Amino acid sequence: MAHAIETSAEIYLAPVRPRSKRIGVVREWVKVSQFLAWPIVFIVFNIFFKIDIRGRHNLEQLENPTLFISNHIAFYDSFLFRLIIGSYGHLLPLCFMAVRNFKSKTLNTLKAVGIIDLIYSLFGAFTIVPGQGIEAGISGARNIIRDGGNVVIYPEGEMITDGVVGPFKRGAAVLARQTGVTVLPLSFRKGSRMLIRRKIDINIGEPIVVDSRISDIDLTARFRDVVVRLMEE
């Protein structure tokens, strides 16, 4: 079995790698843990936040695999994805592209005591090492997509907390062009605080079918423009 993939230079067939028994077990574990996390995440986040999710109808026709892209406003964004998916259990598990070294002292402290590793194992994160090039950075995500899995990427590559969308890196665009995967854009925006509850606006955009003839640079700009528009709506 193979997926047809187009590039600006050629059309070729990328084989779908047979899923090993170990990968299958890990994926089922992550799927179960993400499914069971829904009520916990719902209760905790609705205590501390007032969450408004728009555009959820855009999830209805999604099929696996899908590449989710969004801006990155806080360390808890990945937990919010469980609220976004809601009852659309067929989209689980989500595999989050993540890093192990942080600018935040708090996150580095959590890593030192094992909390980050625990969260990553429970919620399906796979790690990359920045600075090793695009191909090295997206190889894990590409394998997940070719196995039929769903991937979440924050194209900014870091948390941007000042209310703007930062520059997007090219990895998501290269991945989308190489695999032909459907891309679902969404945005996070912090609102005003009322007592202990801060408002978070989440806007889910329409799925994007990538035209392989567009360049990585132009596609990256398009992805960012869509996320900016969603955040400003």
Automatic annotation (TrEMBL):
Q: Molecular function terms in GO for this entry?
A: 1-acylglycerol-3-phosphate O-acyltransferase activity
Q: List this protein's GO terms for biological process.
A: phosphatidic acid biosynthetic process
Q: Which domain of life is it from?
A: Bacteria
What InterPro entries does the database record attribute to this sequence?
Plipid/glycerol_acylTrfase (IPR002123)
Q: Name one Pfam family in it.
A: Acyltransferase
Residues passing through the membrane, by range = 29-49, 79-99
Q: Where is the Phospholipid/glycerol acyltransferase domain?
A: 66-191
Which terms are listed as keywords in the entry?
Acyltransferase, Membrane, Transferase, Transmembrane, Transmembrane helix
Q: Which PANTHER family match?
A: 1-ACYL-SN-GLYCEROL-3-PHOSPHATE ACYLTRANSFERASE
Name of the protein in question: Phospholipid/glycerol acyltransferase domain-containing protein
List the source organism.
Answer: Candidatus Taylorbacteria bacterium RIFCSPHIGHO2_02_FULL_44_12
